[in-house]
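This protein record is not my work; I was only asked to verify it. Would you go through it and say whether the fold makes sense for this chain? Here is the record exactly as it was handed to me.
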Amino acid sequence: AEVLQPRETWKDKDAYDTKAQDLARRFNDNFKKYEAGVSPEVRAAAPKAG
């Protein structure tokens, strides 16, 4: 279903890609505050930007 593929719900796929990359980058930047307190498995599950 489209709901499971959020990119497919956007008319402008390039805009989605840009927004998704920005969100992943912002998440990772913010997560740096908490990195020391989590396991390597949790760190490995972080979104991949780029």
